[in-house]
Amino acid sequence: MNKKPNILIVNDDGIESHGIARLAAMAANFGDVWVVAPEGQCSGMSHKLTIFSELNAHEREFPAAVRGAYSVSGTPADCVKVALKSLLPVWPDYVFSGINAGFNAGYDIAYSGTVGAAMEAVLHDIPAIAFSTQHDGSYEITDKYLLPIAEELMQKSNAGEIWNVNFPGCQACDFKGIIRGAEAAPSFFFENDYQKSEREGKIVLTPFAKLLGPNDAPKGTDVWAVLNGYIAIGRIKNALYR
Question: Dihedral of the CA atoms 74, 80, 82, 88 (nearest 10)?
């Protein structure tokens, strides 16, 4: 890279999440970093935008060397849009989304706010990378491989597509390697179901997730990879991109 890039960091877990602090600290090795993230938890928001109400943005202190950090009272896609239109003094060369607490693999990609934010970047011709890891806070493999994978994918990034990276939650002794070109599994990792009950004359549906096991997805797919000790790297293409 000939010039120091400008990098926008966003997520769907909120500006106070551990993952976004790790991602911003890593990105600072490459260039100037700005953080624009939701005020709180926004998982499952996909590409939702706020249209009929105001958005509030607040400048925030941030535990990494960034040029500026803002929380926004909106969705992950809102954060990218307002960053580009109103908050950032520069146009970013890349958007990094994550690090999400929970895999964004298989059919769950469709619901992901992490991927939704990356897709908003793609719609503005900005290369994007989405990063996710196991939902229990296991960062051993993530911390070791995050920087070299980001550097590799920045050099390979093209307009119109998202690199989607999922890190396993295993320990280093159980790590098997990296699967590049992993396809999305034809299944959900977080398969939602609902516990049905009645309360005060209403039907109450409480969601809960049925998680897949290591042998519950086709071999070589992204879900299979992360459940069997591999980093999964795949691409998500925007069908609307010209």
Answer: 130
pLDDT tens digits along 60-80: 999 999 999 999 999 999 999
Q: Which two tokens stand for residue 218?
A: 């086709």
Rounded-to-10 torsion of CA 240, 44, 207, 40: -160
Q: Measured on CA atoms in the order 168, 174, 180, 184, is the torsion positive or negative?
A: negative
**How far apart, in Å, do the first and last CA atoms of the chain sit?**
26
Instruction: Report DSSP state, residue 121.
Output: H
Residue of 189 and 116 predicted with greater confidence? 116
Query: Quick check: 92 and 85 in contact, CB under 8 A?
Result: no
Structure tokens given for 242: 């010209």
H/E run at residue 237: strand 230-237
Report in angstroms the alpha-carbon separations of 51 from 55, 109, 121, 132: 9, 23, 18, 28
**pTM, entire model:** 0.94
Q: How far is CA 37 from CA 21, 101, 168, in A?
A: 11, 15, 24
